DNA sequence: GGCAACTATGTCGCATGCCGACATAACACA
DNA sequence: TGTGTTATGTCGGCATGCGACATAGTTGCC
């Protein structure tokens, strides 16, 4: 691998900083909407799944969690009326997850604000990505 | 705010997925190098600071941590010979952090691999950023 | 100079969320 | 039908950041 210059450290550090800034924004926004960061990401992943649904295992894959951790996450979300759990019809082991009306509304709001925030961060992120050589 | 289309959810979900993929790569790489993810990010932030140094409070700012949490993080890093703590000369309350030789070597290796990984992810990230409208 | 308010860092106990190990139900296939 | 595998769920443990508090050093104002 080619050696690193000072600017490389600056670029990498800057990129991580922007990512943390985004995470921080996202966590605050989720919190104000009554969600944990993971719950928000789970809602988004499920909503973006085929037909707006995902199995527990698929959610785990998308979030890079162990299936049983996703199961715990889902449990907390069901208790807060964010998603509904429906036993699979073909394979009865699988559980299909869908957003509740409440989850749908919260996600819509959060998605709008996140899109706006990402547009704000975009120029800096693009510049840093370009600076990777 | 303008309404969201299906593609907006897909773009947002895709972007978060790529970020998680990067985080996952980074956490694994840090772990293999004997660091926690936070320790890696701290090394990078300190190294990219003016003169390759940062105060505890400055580190906290860069990592979006409370000062006392940064202090704990630094404590663990000192115990692992990743950074050195030097009492400030002007303001004796401040503690200046610098990478140890070991920390410097580990960070150099991690930075090279991270730059390569980010270059791999870059096309997808750029596409998703552009897709935000 | 000396005291009060403030700043920078550090200590301690707690909450959160993930994981490993284990459990259970359903499926596959011989 | 028996055995191995898959999908999900339960439980205890662990790491890390935070709030509350503590301490040393600094600043300003009289």
Write the layout of secondary structure elements.
Two copies of one chain form a homodimer.
Chain A: H1 6-32, H2 37-47, E1 53-55, H3 56-63, H4 67-79, E2 83-87, E3 95-99, H5 101-130
Antiparallel strand pairs in A: 1-3, 2-3
Chain A binds a DNA duplex (30 and 30 nucleotides) through residues 36, 38, 55-57, 65-76, 88, 91-95.
Give the helix proportion of chain A (percent range).
55-70%
Described by strand count, sense and barrel closure, the largest sheet of chain A is: 3 strands, antiparallel
Do you know the CATH topology of chain A? Arc Repressor Mutant, subunit A
The pLDDT mean of chain A sits at 96
Low-confidence stretches of chain A: none
- For the record, what is the CATH homologous superfamily label of chain A? Winged helix-like DNA-binding domain superfamily/Winged helix DNA-binding domain
N-end to C-end Cα span of chain A: 13 Å
Number of E-state strands of chain A: 3
Report the β-strand fraction of chain A as a percent range: 5-15%
> Could you give the order of the helices and strands of chain A?
HHEHHEEH
**Biggest chain-to-chain interface with counts:** A-B, 40 and 40 residues
List keywords for this structure.
133 residues; mainly alpha; elongated; 3 strands; DNA-binding; three-stranded antiparallel sheet; homodimer; Arc Repressor Mutant, subunit A
